[in-house]
Amino acid sequence: EVCRDKYDAVLPLVRLLLHHHKLVPFVAAVAELDLKDTQEANTIFRGNSLATRCVDEMMKIVGKHYLKVTLKPVIDEVGYPEIGFRILSPLGCPVSLVDILLTAPCENLRYYVDKVFREIVRSSISCPTLMCDVFYSLRHLAAKRFPNDPHVQYSAVSSFVFLRFFAVAVVSPHTFHLRPHHPDAQTSRTLTLISKAIQTLGSWGSLTKSKLSSFKETFMCEFFKTFQEEKFTESVKKFLDDVSSTESKEPSGLSQPVHLKEG
């Protein structure tokens, strides 16, 4: 209500609250206000509100090292053109659906998606405690707002950790310091498809026909039919349980100091 563009205030506000160890109660308070205006459980924390932007900035600041140890090895591997997935033929023409489904490129994409997904779901021990505390608050606020929806407690967390954190870092690794430069067109295309796959796998619930039909690329619908297995859903559920728990974790030895101010 005070700032004309509230997003200009988000970054300094988050840094200030981090310094004073007040970020978790603040996020819980603004998230609760956000939820009052949320009418449908399946749209929870999908917009760009003050609450979601604060959590976004918090994850960028606190989760840098977490991203590095989880995703950087795989992102580096995708960056090699001799390994990278080609969506265009050597002549620059889009390859046909049959070519994509029956030849090596689809296998390469499956390999990368499997690897990124596996690294994410087993990374909960490395998730910073502050992120876990925030996710714990969001999870319980969502369950309180929609008590008759057993899935909402998971989608409240996955909408951040998968859609706004891992998926964004995969598609734009240079903005998270996972790569020194913007990836070339071929690598960027590969990373975009991997990111879409991670978003879909991270969405709580099964891969329904309606969800599959949301892909613009027809071949992605066919591709995702290979992921319609319960083990993927169970892996996501366990991961979300772990990162939204306040139970003490074993020290991972991977934490790094967070820089709130420079100069």
UniProtKB/TrEMBL annotation:
<dbReference type="InterPro" id="IPR008936">
    <property type="entry name" value="Rho_GTPase_activation_prot"/>
</dbReference>
<dbReference type="Pfam" id="PF00616">
    <property type="entry name" value="RasGAP"/>
</dbReference>
<feature type="domain" description="Ras-GAP">
    <location>
        <begin position="5"/>
        <end position="203"/>
    </location>
</feature>
<keyword id="KW-0343">GTPase activation</keyword>
<dbReference type="GO" id="GO:0005096">
    <property type="term" value="F:GTPase activator activity"/>
</dbReference>
<dbReference type="InterPro" id="IPR039360">
    <property type="entry name" value="Ras_GTPase"/>
</dbReference>
<feature type="region of interest" description="Disordered">
    <location>
        <begin position="241"/>
        <end position="263"/>
    </location>
</feature>
<protein>
    <submittedName>
        <fullName>RASA2 protein</fullName>
    </submittedName>
</protein>
<dbReference type="InterPro" id="IPR023152">
    <property type="entry name" value="RasGAP_CS"/>
</dbReference>
<dbReference type="InterPro" id="IPR001936">
    <property type="entry name" value="RasGAP_dom"/>
</dbReference>
